[in-house]
Amino acid sequence: MHPEIRRDGPGSCPICGMALEPLEPSLEEGPNPELIDMTRRFWASTAFTVPLAVLVIAAELFGLEIMPMRTLVWVQLALATPVVLWGGWPFFERFWSSLKSRNLNMFTLIGLGVGVAYGYSVVAALVPEIFPASLKTMAGRSRSILKLPRSSRPWCCSDRCSS
């Protein structure tokens, strides 16, 4: 994407953060180390994400109390931490390099968004009492996702709903 960037070997573009491609394409394709690394991170993160999703769905959607709420918060944080920190590490590296080079890009958005959301979750787990009651669930813990109040009337896009 940036033809002015030339390197002797593989790496990341200092402008956009994307992986550098060989100048001359070859018929022989070797293994892609970035793909291998990201695939390994994906499957390892999935192993933590599936039980995390099951716990959240069981508690929030079905109202099941699998364990005490405070314990559930710590279990969720323990399952999410390796996904964010280890699984997302390549994104954080590219986020940091985009800030250092002052070439903001998609990795800046990803790193900032994931970092702020994870930081909020850590604060909510450590000191839930700093949040107002309107941001807490019925069990008294801080929400990880803000829910908007529901309208008393359903939304509709036709005149037939006006009655």
Task: Summarize this structure briefly.
With 163 residues, the protein is mainly α.
How would you sum up this structure, described in words?
Helix content is 50%, strand content 0%. It has helices at 33-61, 69-87, 89-101, 106-126. By secondary structure, it is mainly alpha-helical. The chain has a domain at 33-143.
Rg, rounded, reads: 22 Å
Low-confidence stretches: 145-163
Question: What overall form do the CA principal axes indicate?
Answer: elongated
Amount of helix:
40-55%
Give the overall pLDDT as a whole number. Answer: 80
What can be said about the biggest beta sheet?
none
Strand count? 0
- Hey, roughly how much beta strand do the residues contain? under 5%
Order of helices and strands: HHHH
For the structure shown, list the relevant keywords:
single chain, 163 residues, mainly alpha, 50% helix, disordered C terminus
How is the secondary structure organized here?
Layout: H1 33-61, H2 69-87, H3 89-101, H4 106-126
